[in-house]
Design a protein that fits this description.
With about 300 residues, this protein is an alpha/beta fold. About 35% of the residues lie in helices and about 25% in strands. It contains eight helices and twelve strands. The chain has helices spanning about 75-100, 115-120, 135-145, 175-185, 205-210, 225-235, 250-260, 265-285, and strands at about 5, 15-25, 30-40, 45, 50, 105-110, 125-130, 160-165, 185-200, 220-225, 240-245, 290-295. The strands form three sheets. It has a six-stranded mixed sheet with strand order 7-6-8-9-12-11, sandwiched between helices. It has a four-stranded antiparallel sheet with strand order 2-3-4-10, with no helix packed on it.
Amino acid sequence: MNILNIDTCPLCGKKHFEEVLTCTDHYATGEKFTIYRCTACGFQFTQHVPDESVIGRYYESPDYISHTDTRKGLANRLYHYVRGYMLGRKAALIERICGMRNGDLLDIGTGTGYFSRYMQKRGWKVSAIEKSPQARAFAREHFGLEVAAPEKLASYGKGAFDVVTLWHVMEHLQDINGTWQRLSEILRDKGVLVIAVPNPASFDAEHYKEVWAAYDVPRHLWHFTPSAMQQFGAKFGFILTERHPMPFDAFYVSMLSEKYRGSRMSFLKGMLTGTEAWFASLVKKERSSSMIYVFRKK
């Protein structure tokens, strides 16, 4: 198997790392992967993950519901309910920060197309990219969306979009620096970049440690603290203008984490920890399970 060995920090370029945690792939294989931290800048990443050419089988699980539409089980039904609520919140955020009700929007990692379809119905001209052929087929069959494969990103012209969104996608992308550079090129001068990622500095991450479901190894290669995300933006000419917590994520992530622990009554215990995490994020939003980052060009 082709293995990705990271010998240089993609954020600061230094080469000295320390082990942080060893986590298990609970979704697909049961294999273990180690998370490392750069001793110079603190950026965390999963080491020795399968290369892009062979990682596909680690997504082949009916439980990976970001790329499916199953509603079996209470946790999955909760996930879909919250997703529906958050579509409106995301749209309102984008339209407020842009000062626009329509424009050109690119959604990278659109999954099964719910967000792209929602923005399209609101009047936006939406382009969408998704790696999974099954998810692209779902979006086409259910929403009539023509979703492109990731190779399409290289073809967009300079300044093609008013908004680019990556909802829980950046942590999956192996060519992280190349992606940031491309985002800078395709955004218009007054464009907005919106990125949502899990937060390893969150209350629930510190509570669950190696069984925190949002580490999601090896699918999640990068683990962005608020500080690391700001530094990446600055490296590629972006200014971080807003940060928003995603406290609902803590409930779903906590329920999964309890399941991985083998807890009895994992739903109830996850709800209790999710509630604690919610209050922690109210006190300090940087403790939220996931964060939304809004960038503009300098």
